Amino acid sequence: MRHSFLSQKVFVHTRLSENLTKLALLSEKKWEVYQIDQDTPDRAPQLLCCGKNNGDHGPSFDHLYKMKKSTIIKYSNFSENSKESMDLLSDWEHITCRVTENLLVIAGSRGFLRVLDLNANGRVLYTYQSKFPIRCIDVSPNEQFISLGITGKDKYTTVESAFVILLRLQYLDGGIVNNNGMTT
Q1: Could you give the number of structural domains in the chain?
Q2: How many CB atoms lie within 10 A of CB 18?
Q3: Which DSSP letter does residue 70 get?
Q4: Per the domain annotation, does 7 fall within a domain?
Q5: Do residues 184 and 167 make contact, with C-beta atoms less than 8 angstroms apart?
Q6: What 3-state DSSP class applies to 87?
Q7: Burial, 123: exposed, middle or buried (Cβ in 10 Å; 0-12, 13-18, 19+)?
Q8: Residues of the chain with pLDDT under 50
C-alpha cells in the first residue's frame, strides 16, 4: 500500500474497522477516516471524512463544518458545570479510538470521549466526560454499546483500581441521548 494518501506524518493512534473497510488515523488534535476498497488493494485509501478536536468536521480539512457550542452541550453529559467542561474540552487531546462501519469513537485526555457519525462527515453525536482517566475503549459489533476502562484511586486507601463503564447508545433527534445523555 502506498502511503502518499497521508496528509500528515505524526499519528498517535491508528485503527482498522472490524470489516477492514475503514482506517482511522489520530493525531493529538486532528482525526482522519479513510475508506478502503478491498477489491482494489493497490489503490490508496480514499478520505471519507476528517476533523479537529474542537468538533469541526467535514469531507476534507479545506471544507470543515463548525460545531456550535450549544449543540455540543446539548448532546453531552455536561450537567453540573457546562462552562467548566467546555473550557477543559477546548484543550483536550486524542489518545485512542475505535472505528466501526458508522462510528468513530475517540477517547482522549481530561476524561473526554467523542462519538462521531461517519455517515455525516464525522459530525459529533455525543461528548462524554468521565471524572477519571479513560485507559481503553471498545465498541460492540452492533454499535449499541461502548465500554470504557477507567482507573481511579480510593480516597481512603489511595489504591488505584480499574473499573468498566458501559455506555448504551440511544439515537434520537440528530444526536445520542439518554435521561440527559448516555446511560452508564
Answers
A1: 1
A2: 13
A3: H
A4: no
A5: yes
A6: helix
A7: buried
A8: 1-3, 178-184
What is the reported pTM?
Answer: 0.87
Q: Identify the CA nearest to 138 among candidates 113, 109, 175.
A: 113
Q: pLDDT value at position 182?
A: 40
Written as one letter, the residue type at 137 is I
Task: Report DSSP state, residue 83.
Answer: H
Q: Note the residue count of the chain.
A: 184
Residue at 65: amino acid letter:
Y
Q: Cα–Cα distance between 171 and 168 in angstroms, integer?
A: 10
Residue 69: give its domain's CATH number.
2.40.128
Q: Cell digits for 111? A: 476524561
Burial of 55 (0-12, 13-18, 19+ CB in 10 A): buried
For residue 158, what pLDDT is reported? 87
Domain containing 43 equals 13-176
